[in-house]
Amino acid sequence: MLLKVATALSVLVAGVLAAPEVRLHGTRIIGQDVTASKVDFFGGVPFAEPPVGRLRFRKPVLKTSLETRIFNATNFGSSCLQPALMPGVSDVSEDCLTINIHRPTGTKPGDKLPVLFWTYGGAFLIGGSASYNGSELVAQSVRRGTPIVYVNFNYRLGPFGYPNGKEAHDRRSLNLGLEDILAALRWVHANIDAFGGDKRKVTIFGESAGGMNIGVLYLNRELEQLVRGAIFESGQANGRPGFAAAESETNWQGFVRNIPSCASVATSGNTFSCLQKASQEEIRTAYLGSFGGGDLFGGLAFTPTIDAGPGGLYPDFVSKLYKSGKFAKIPFIAGNNLDEGTLFATAARSANYTEADLKRGVIFASSPPVVDPGRLEEGATKLLELYPEDPKVGSPYGTGDDLFGLPANFKRAASLQGDQTFDAPRRQWIQTASAHGVKAYGYLFTQPQPLGDPAGGVPHAAEIGYIYGNALDFSPEGRTLTTYMMDYWISFTVNLDPNDKNGSERPIWPLYTESNQVLLQLNGANTSVIRDDYRKDGIGYMNDNAIVFRR
C-alpha cells in the first residue's frame, strides 16, 4: 500500500515538475503543456488590477507583481462582462483583465522570439480571448523553422470599456477598452522576455472591432514604441462614425436610466459614483439592449469616442488625421472578406424593408450631421444611386440574380453597409498610408464557405479559422489556404514581410504602393494578385466624402 502511495505521489510530482514554468517578479507561474502541439500555455495572468469598485470606469492600473509565490496559469481567465450573445463565452466577470501566452515547448527566457498579439472583435460589446487558441499558429511557426510567441488578452466591453457622455469625458474615462489594449502591450514590454519573447518584435493583429481598435491606436505615435507591425482583418479606425462625448450624452443617460439603483441620477451629470456601487448584473442587464440587433445602421451604443482632450487616444475625425499624416508609420497588412455586409444587413431581410429605410439608415448613422443637413441628405441619395437595387451587383457578390429567398433590397443593403463599414475604410487607410511611405500589404479573402449560409457568401469573420488552423473547411483547397494564410501571417510577424521562403510554396504577395494598388486574393483554388479597384465609384464616393458620413 505504501509503495502504491509513493508511486502515485512520484507520478504527481513528476507531472508538476514537467509543467512549463516561468519566474516573474518572485512568482512561479505554472502553465500547461499542450502536448499534441508541443506548445506551452500560460493563461489567465493578470496584467492590470481588477477594474472593480473604485476602479470601475477608470483607466487600467498596470499589474507589477502577482503577490503570490505560485500562480496557476493552466486555464484562460474569465471573459469581460457582456451579454450572453457569443457562443463559447459563458465564464464572464468584471475581473477580467488577464493575458495568455502560447510559446514553443522548450523556449527559454531571453530567446527573443517574435510576438504575435491578438485583439478580438465583437462589436465592442462581446468577445473574449478564450475563444482563440493560438497553439496551432505557434506549432506551425515551429514546423516552418520560424518560431513565434502568441499572446492574447481581454479588454473591457460595452459601457465598462467604452463609457460615453460628458461625465466620462470630464473624468478622463473615455475609451477604456483602448487603454486596456495599451496596458496589455505595456505588460508585454515589461514581461515577455521571461516567456522567451522579444518586446522589440511585437506585431498586433485583430479582426472587426479588434482591427478598429488597432486603427484608432494608430492615431497615436506612442504605438510606434510598443509594436513594429500590425495586421488588420476587416476593421479600420473609420469603420464606425466618429462622435464626441457630448454627442453621446443622451445615449449615456438612457443607459443609466435602465439601471434601477441609479435611474434617479441619470440626468445629474454625476452618475459614476452610483454606477461604481451598482451590481454587475444590473449593468449587464441594462446594456443587453445596447446591441443594435446586428444591423450596422441600427447603432452601437458603446464604441470609441472622439476625445481631443489631453491624452485623448482619438483626437479627431479619422479622415482629417489621415489628410494631415497624423498617424503611426508602422508596417501593416490590411484586408477584407468578399461579403462583409451580409452578416449585418439583418433589417433588410424583412419584406417590409424599403429603399426609404435604407436611406434613413445611412442618415441616422451619420447624425447629427457635421455638415449641412442638406449635404448629408444629398450624400445618402447619391449612395443609393451608386448601390442600386440590382441583385447582379449586390452582395453576396458573383451570385447573379439569385435572391436566396430574400427581398431584393437585402443584397443592396449588404453591399452598401459592407463597403461603408469595412471595404471603404480599408481602401482609404491603405491608400493613405502607402502614400506616406508606409510599408503595406492588402488582401481580399474570397474562399467559398462550404458550411455557410449561401446568402452570406464569404462573410465577415470567415477568415479567422484559416489563420488559427481550425477552419471547418476540409476541402483540399481549404487545407491549402489554411497553410498559406498561417505562413503569410507568421512570416510577416517574423520579417515584416509575408514572403519568406519558409513553409509552403505560396504566391508572392506584392507591396501595395501608390503606383501599384494591388491586393492578394486569398482563395485556395486561385490565390493571385488582383487590382484594388472593385466598386470603385461607390467606395470612391464614400472616401471622397468621408466627413459627410462622420468618418
From TrEMBL:
Top EC class, one word: hydrolase
Signal peptide: 1-18
Assigned EC number: 3.1.1.-
GO molecular function: carboxylic ester hydrolase activity
Keywords: Hydrolase, Signal
Pfam families the UniProt entry points to: COesterase
Occurrences of domain Carboxylesterase type B (ranges): 19-528
InterPro entries: AB_hydrolase_fold, AChE-related_enzymes, CarbesteraseB, Carboxylesterase_B_AS
Family: Belongs to the type-B carboxylesterase/lipase family.
Protein name (database record): Carboxylic ester hydrolase
